[in-house]
């Protein structure tokens, strides 16, 4: 593949396109989390306690919205850095999303355990 032509003072377009693909991946992840929250609200039982499925659904939807907004913020910051030929800024988005999803999974595991043990 021949090298991409570079205009004076303009970054390589491949970096901008890669950054855009990363944004789309964060948006897909956020959408999947929101869809999971809607699915839990619609189809899951009470999960051991009356408020269980509602709490999990809200947590998933909020995590999905936060993931999408965080992905957009990360994309903007990276675009600025690429345009100014600076190093990309550090991001806490991935560890934050992992922690949020992990917390939801722990809550789901506890609620399922309560439901199984109460039978």
Structural features:
3 helices; mainly alpha; about 120 residues
What does this structure look like?
This protein is mostly helical. It has one domain (13-86, 93-117). It is built from 3 helices and no strands. The longest helix has 32 residues, at 52-83. The model has no long low-confidence stretch (mean pLDDT 91).
> What gap, in angstroms, lies between the N and C termini?
63 Å
Helix percent reads: over 70%
Number of individual domains: 1
Rg from Cα: 20 Å
Class computed from helices, strands and strand pairing: mainly alpha
What would you say about this model in short?
This is DUF202 domain-containing protein. The protein has one domain.
Write the SSE topology:
Blueprint: H1 13-43, H2 52-83, H3 93-117
Helix pairs in contact: 1-2, 2-3
